[in-house]
Design goal:
Copper Amine Oxidase, Chain A, domain 1, ten-stranded mixed sheet, 22 strands, five-stranded antiparallel sheet, alpha/beta
Length: 544
């Protein structure tokens, strides 16, 4: 199919049109993303609750209003970085991209503007802060620079480059950042927190839940991500619902309102692992947080909530080839085994790696209710990362967590088609105090259009991008420009004009004018592929 025909066909399937319905702006906007949650997860979570006497239905059920096709600029199956970034910016992007205009690809589904390649794309979080004066926050269970939080608060072409992403998030001066990632903090980030009066809470749940100041606050737990909810020590780690409730308490003190993004980060990770019990548990932990947000919105009367996944994962289903006679299977056959599992496969692996072989069968049963066979025991003992008691023998097969998952899935009736992402549409749920929510089938670009409308932006995100992310060669044309690359990770741009000098560090929001520090108002993004700093055009006025 020719390129032009492909674009026309795609436009018919997924029209990129402004939402025609009236959307009355509200004071507060909450976006909630259960990462990698396929539609089958909702079904399993409902049945799990019913089977275990935990109530009927999910907190989101009354608010489900449609579905969303979410995709990358050049692929129907998306990754968290480009799909979440499209929710945040309205710009389709490629795998790995975080809130940035993509390169042109021969497989582009839509026309990509080559003149904008690598230009950072302003996010709804940034616009809420810069254009509307709102408080802004992120709550996640991953490490704080992971794909989805980065989608809303940073800009780069490679999601895994935490050296470039983490400082951007720190220099956004978020009012709230709750999640994981203590090991990712740097001396520079810590110093910025000190200089800016940002409170940093580390591995202290009580300090977070008792926080009662008007200042900006970060609370991080663990070296990287928080544990899976099923493995979580509730005395040490807060739940996603607890973090969400505290974030709403802090953010709602702002008279202009707030924007909050909450991610149930690890539904996706459990789906990658094909770990059914953990998928269900992670989603229910997210749904509890969604209940907190929806209660807040209903009571507040001036808050909108948007809840949707960024993509599917694993092809998760109730029913598999392991269980013939699908229409005769009882609820016990489908949900008894999964209901008895008390740890994730990773959590069980951590436990079994520390014990002797003759204790493995007993401990496996204690945490899963499953009696493993002698053959399955030998499979566990042969795991690549298991060491015999005398530490002289090392296994050669898969890691133990993988072997544990295979054993668990052999006893259950859940199906998986892959260990990767999938391309089906995702569920969309929303609350608006006047009922102004889109219904039916949408695409990810239209979700961003709705967010812009409900936030009440007078200017578009693209207009904001062209205001705060301009090439340094255009901003400082005619002036003396030098780049200091003594630190390759964080090059510094030096500009001189007459007696005035300006110093701008990559991935920071603090500049120096004639040696005196000042707040730029947004982050400076450096892209090494084109040796370009992207920064506010208003900085030129500093040198006049």
């Amino acid at each position: 199919m020719k390129k032009a025909s492909k674009i026309i066909l795609t436009l018919l399937l997924f029209p990129i049109l402004a939402l025609s319905q009236e959307v009355r702006p509200v004071k507060n906007v909450i976006v909630m993303i259960p990462d990698g949650t396929s539609i089958g997860v909702y079904s399993a979570a409902r049945w799990f609750k019913h089977y275990n006497g935990l109530g009927e239905g999910l907190n989101i059920d009354p608010y489900i209003s449609g579905t969303v096709t979410t995709f990358s600029s050049n692929a129907p199956i998306g990754d968290s970085a480009p799909t979440g970034s499209t929710y945040a910016t309205g710009v389709l992007q490629q795998t790995g991209n975080v809130a940035i205009h993509p390169e042109v690809s021969e497989n582009d589904i839509y026309e990509v503007d080559s003149k904008r390649t690598y230009q950072p794309a302003a996010t709804i979080l940034e616009a809420s802060k810069i254009e509307k004066g709102k408080a802004v926050g992120l709550v996640v269970t991953s490490e704080f620079p992971h794909a989805t939080p980065a989608d809303f608060s940073a800009h780069y072409y490679a999601r895994g480059n935490y050296d470039a992403i983490a400082p951007q998030i720190a220099y956004q001066n978020l009012d709230v950042m709750f999640g994981g990632g203590n090991s990712i903090l740097t001396e520079d980030i810590n110093q910025h927190f000190n200089n800016s009066g940002i409170t940093l809470i580390q591995d202290d749940k009580n300090a977070l839940l008792n926080y009662n100041s008007d200042g900006k606050v970060w609370a991080l737990f663990g070296e990287k991500a928080l544990p899976y909810n099923i493995d979580r020590n509730p005395d040490k780690y807060p739940s996603l619902a607890e973090m969400t409730e505290k974030a709403l308490e802090v953010l709602s003190k702002n008279d202009n309102g707030f924007f909050l993004m909450v991610e149930g980060s690890q539904v996706d990770w459990a789906a990658h692992a094909n770990d059914a019990a953990t998928i269900i548990n992670e989603y229910l932990a997210f749904d509890e947080a969604a209940g907190i947000a929806l209660d807040f919105a209903r009571n507040d009367g001036n808050t909108a909530v948007v809840i949707l996944s960024d993509h599917g994962n694993s092809g998760f289903t109730i029913g598999s080839n392991n269980c013939p006679g699908y229409d005769k299977l009882t609820i016990d056959q489908l949900f008894e085994t999964v209901s008895g599992i008390k740890l994730s496969a990773n959590g069980l692996e951590s436990l079994l790696l520390k014990i002797q072989p003759d204790s493995i069968k007993t401990e496996f049963r204690n945490y899963t209710g499953i009696d493993i066979t002698e053959e399955e025991l030998q499979t566990i003992l042969s795991s690549r990362n298991y060491h015999e008691g005398d530490y002289t023998k090392v296994g050669t097969s898969n890691n133990m967590a993988h072997n544990i998952v295979n054993i668990l899935n052999s006893r259950m009736c859940f199906g998986f088609t892959t260990g990767g992402h999938t391309g089906e549409e995702v569920l969309f749920a929303a609350y608006h105090p006047q009922g102004d929510i889109p219904k039916g089938h949408l695409n990810n670009i239209q979700i961003n259009e709705y967010l812009q409308k409900v936030t009440g932006l007078e200017t578009s995100l693209q207009t904001l991008s062209d205001k705060i992310f301009v090439k340094h060669t255009d901003v400082f044309a005619g002036m003396e420009i030098r780049t200091n690359k003594s630190d390759l990770k964080f090059p510094i741009l030096n500009i001189k004009n007459g007696n005035n000098s300006l110093e701008l560090k990559a991935f920071s929001s603090i500049g120096k004018l004639n040696g005196k520090s000042f707040d730029i108002g947004s982050v400076v993004v450096f892209i090494d592929k084109n040796e370009t700093f992207y920064l506010p055009k208003a900085l030129r006025d500093k040198l006049k």
